[in-house]
Amino acid sequence: MDILLANPRGFCAGVERAIAIVEKALELFGAPIYVRHEVVHNKYVVDNLRAKGAVFVDELDDVPDGGTVIFSAHGVSKAVQAEAARRKLRVFDATCPLVTKVHLEVARQRTQGREVVMIGHKGHPEVEGTMGQSGDGMHLVEKVGDVPRLTFSDPERVAYVTQTTLSIDDAATIVGALRERFPAIVGPKKDDICYATQNRQDAVRKLAESCDVVLVVGSPTSSNSNRLREVAAGMGCAAHLIDGPDEIRAEWLAGKRSVGLTAGASAPEILVERVIHRLREMGAAKVVAQEGEPERVSFPLPKLN
């Protein structure tokens, strides 16, 4: 059995920036540093930061007065920002700049008097943060079947944005349904789905064409990792999402000649290496890296003081 490695895979610039902000805050101010929600959706990363002194909380109520809090890469609502300011918490914002771009698009469209459709998954922190950029005029659509139920005060004044980690194909289908029902709807000048999500989905499609089974390294809470598994499965390839090597099941590999391996944007390369080691123990022979363009995107850290 051969292992074919997707390229690109794993950490994106937004994830690297968010982790670096937490680590830098711990270095400068010492533990505990509070983080609202998981800074990125990966168990290994969160456990590692927790061991260094990060305290992950669900709400700001769990942060003591005078505490330092970091907003996760998924972004937060205006209400959360206002509450942190009211309590005079020291705040560092690890929101991915590409998520911030979506927030700014919402603000721009609302200022122009348009109601905004958010395409995304209910309950996901990024969706909650984006929906909370405006006190009204926001509508959530999760699937094509939600589109017929939408009503607006003025169907000629409507815009849409999307969660950055959606399946490209699924998002395009929903946008198509929105345009059919509301021909005047406007979208962002550039797609909201981030470069890393798109690149990893393109790579996993290529992987699925060449492999008998695809393993996606990522946590169950990771939207982009789940989408990678779905993309591979949608191409008729057996695909499994795993948090690490211990979750690989021998029956997935029985009789297989090639296994594809990729990782979500919040999964570190060390987990990929551990999975490769385990696959070698289970009989894998050579490792072949897919050809792919290197990603050269990087985001600067905010000033921490």
Overall description:
This protein has a 5-stranded parallel sheet with strand order 10-9-11-1-12, with helices on both faces. The protein folds into 3 domains: 2-11 and 194-289, 3-Layer(aba) Sandwich (Cobalt-precorrin-4 Transmethylase, domain 1), CATH 3.40.1010; 13-95, Rossmann fold; 98-181, Cobalt-precorrin-4 Transmethylase, domain 1. The chain has helices spanning 13-29, 43-52, 78-86, 97-111, 125-131, 168-181, 195-210, 223-234, 250-253, 269-281; strands spanning 2-5, 33-36, 54-57, 68-71, 90-93, 115-119, 138-141, 158-162, 213-217, 238-242, 258-263, 287-289. Helix 7 (195-210) runs parallel beside helix 8 (223-234). The protein has 10 helices and 12 strands. Helices cover 38% and strands 17% of the residues. It is an alpha/beta fold and 305 residues long. It is flat. The model has no long low-confidence stretch (mean pLDDT 96). It starts with a strand and ends in a 16-residue tail after the last strand.
Keywords:
17% strand, alpha/beta, Rossmann fold, Cobalt-precorrin-4 Transmethylase, domain 1, 38% helix, five-stranded parallel β-sheet, four-stranded parallel β-sheet, 3 domains, 305 residues, 10 helices
**Residue windows where pLDDT falls under 50 for at least 5 positions:** none
Strand order of the largest sheet: 10-9-11-1-12
What is the radius of gyration computed over CA atoms, rounded to a whole number of angstroms?
Answer: 20 Å
Nearest-integer average pLDDT: 96
